[in-house]
């Protein structure tokens, strides 16, 4: 069980895939992206 094994974490790292042993890291949204700057009310 090592780099060639599909079901181990080391094997997933070697192949560059994800799965039950190695989850994908979800990208966190920044607060700036939640608030749309373009929609702000412009003063005259």
TrEMBL record:
| Compositional bias ranges of the Basic and acidic residues kind | 30-44
Q: Where is this region: Disordered?
A: 1-44
Q: Which InterPro entries match?
A: Ribosomal_bTHX/bTHXc/bTHXm (IPR030826)
Give the keywords, sorted. Ribonucleoprotein, Ribosomal protein
Q: Where is the composition biased (Basic residues)?
A: 1-29
Record family assignment = Belongs to the bacterial ribosomal protein bTHX family.
Q: Indicate what this protein is called per its UniProt record.
A: 30S ribosomal protein THX
The organism of origin for this protein: Corallibacter vietnamensis
């Amino acid at each position: 069980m090592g780099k060639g094994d599909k079901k181990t974490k080391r094997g997933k790292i070697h192949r560059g895939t994800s799965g039950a042993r190695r989850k994908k890291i979800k990208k966190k949204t920044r607060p700036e992206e939640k608030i749309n700057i373009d929609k702000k009310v412009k003063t005259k």
